[in-house]
Amino acid sequence: MEKTTVVVIGGGSTGVGILRDLAMRGVDVLLLEKRDMVNGTSSRYHGLLHSGARYVVKDQEAARECIEENIILRKIGKSCVEATEGLFIRLPEDDEAFEEKWVAGCKNSGISAIPITPQEAWQLEPNLSSRLVAAYRVPDAAIDGFRMAWQNIDSAKRYGGRVKTYTEVIRVVSENGKVTGVEVRKFFTNETYFIACDFVINAAGPWSGQIAALAGLEVHVQPDKGTLIAFNQRMTSRIVNRLHVPSDGDIFVPHGSITILGTTSMSVKDPEDTSSSFLEIESLLKIGEKTFENLRKYRILRAFAGSRPLYSSSGGIGRGASRGFVILNHAAEGLYGFITITGGKFTTYRLMAEKLTDMVCQELHITAPCRTAEEPLIQDVPENVKQQARKYFPAYGTVLAANRLGGERFERVVKRLENSPQERQLVCECENVTVAEIKEVISEGTSHTVNDIRRKTRMGMGTCQGIFCSLRSVGILSQYEMAAEKQGSIEQLQNFLQSRFKGIRPVLWGNALREIEIARGIYGVGLNVNGGKPKC
Fold it and tell me: Given a cut of 50, is residue 471 above it in pLDDT?
């Protein structure tokens, strides 16, 4: 029988933050995720590291938490954060009275909001609307959710933290009002077994209500779906927010070579609902082109959606619910050892983990302090290693790979490149992903599908959306028994192509339509692979 002290359910940002904090304080902790890590909310958002300025009028506490954590994450996760800066701009139709409240709110929250003239704003961002009447500079930034999560896991493993993916909790077991463990089911084999533990942490985000139900408890979490659009160009160097009451389609976030426009807010019954419709896309475009008047000239890469876990004791839903977080100790309801944490934002994941870990450590009589705000997630890649890597990577590929992989893993990949010239070949030209990098992430034991590889390396997330690199990646993955026993190569390829098409379907016009025809020609016609024939 497997045994641990604490089981954490949910492999999103909050779950991995808790895993790291508990492990660093010497607690035996195991994280369980029903699919791959960062498969849900924490990878399906705009990637904004909030300054807190968006919340200063409505929610001062959330705003203060955001600016404090913004500063911390820039320090501990340097390779995950792009310090873009942010602009808040007001257009003629935006309420001038709200601007006054917002300026006062930023001051009260300790958030720097530097006023600049429209002319200065246009010098910084030439593509901004010609109608803007006011602008402010704020310390927003962009952050990579995939990278931040995996670096938390790497840090936790150094302290003994463990992770099991494709392991779904199907029952929370208790005896005499105290948690004794969880029953789990392996995704690929349907095998079930028992894991004994003293505490269960429910960090399943919008699925928290479903996990609580397994323990006979009720947690009122409302999944709130947000749809976003990824453009294939970097139309702005800074994050741009509309200076009005937070609403749909009023944030543009640059990431690498792309820009993300978001987001909508729609209450849904099922957090698995990540569909996007043409009407949602058209609505976002109409709103977004008020900020960037030439928005429709930019090429759309894809659309995607995710569910926020909104918790509100007052019954607020959608944008009426607080972006703060809540910790529910269910001992008060008669079940000792079961704790739920929900709500919050990606920006505040570390703080959420600290508060919950403080509570668990108090129960365990552990006095070790939290160190997650001081210790970097990973060590920087030494300059001499980068210099060596430049012999094998394209011009800018070294920095991309070093940021993705971190110190130790990057060094292992460089050794692969040195020792095996055949592994220097690029699998994904868009993101500069080599054969060596893909083999490295597969060898770690948590990459069972092509989509798992994508989330770790960004393979298939560039301009071609996997048209050319998917077949190569499947070929590499099929060499490993851990993948071959779960899905055949053709099934892997079909599933990956359909997952990519899901995000292209709502924007199927112009270049996107031309590219899907390329995919259909290569896979549907040339290779007779069903995944290359889009399902309508």
Answer: yes
Whether 94 and 191 map to the same domain: the answer is no
Alpha helices in 330-487 (DSSP H): 349-364, 383-389, 397-405, 407-419, 435-443, 450-457, 469-477, 481-484
**Residues 255/144, Cβ–Cβ less than 8 Å:** yes
Specify the pLDDT at position 364.
Answer: 97
Which helix (H) or strand (E) segment is 225 a member of?
strand 221-231
Cis preceding linkage at 263, omega within 30: yes
> Which domain covers residue 87, as residue numbers?
81-142+224-308
Q: Is the pTM of this model over 0.90?
A: yes
In degrees rounded to 5, what are phi and psi of residue 516? Answer: -70, -25
Q: Looking at the structure, do residues 440 and 524 belong to the same domain, yes or no?
A: yes
* CA atoms of 389 and 381, how far apart (whole Å): 11
Q: In sequence order, what DSSP letters do the residues of 238-293 get, joined into one string? A: SEEEESSS--TT-EEEEETTEEEEE---EE-S-TT-----HHHHHHHHHHHTTTST
Q: What CATH number did the domain enclosing 236 receive?
A: 3.30.9.10
d(CA 256, CA 112): 25
The reported pLDDT for the residue numbered 527 is 86
Q: Which pLDDT band holds residue 81 (cuts at 50, 70, 90)?
A: very high
The total number of structural domains that make up the chain: 3
Same domain, 470 and 516: yes
Are 292 and 231 part of one and the same domain?
yes
Q: How confident is the model at residue 535 (pLDDT cuts 50, 70, 90)?
A: low
The alpha carbon of 449 is separated from its chain's Cα centroid by a whole number of angstroms, namely: 18
155 in any annotated domain: yes
Report yes or no on 327 lying in a domain. Answer: yes
- 161 with 296, same domain? no
**Residue 532: pLDDT above 80?**
no
Q: How many residues does the chain have?
A: 536
Q: What is the dihedral of CA 526, 531, 533, 536, to 10 degrees?
A: 180
Long-range contacts, stretch 389-398, CB < 8 angstroms, 24+ apart: 389/413, 389/414, 389/417, 392/417, 392/418, 392/424, 392/434, 393/432, 393/434, 394/426, 394/432, 396/432, 397/432
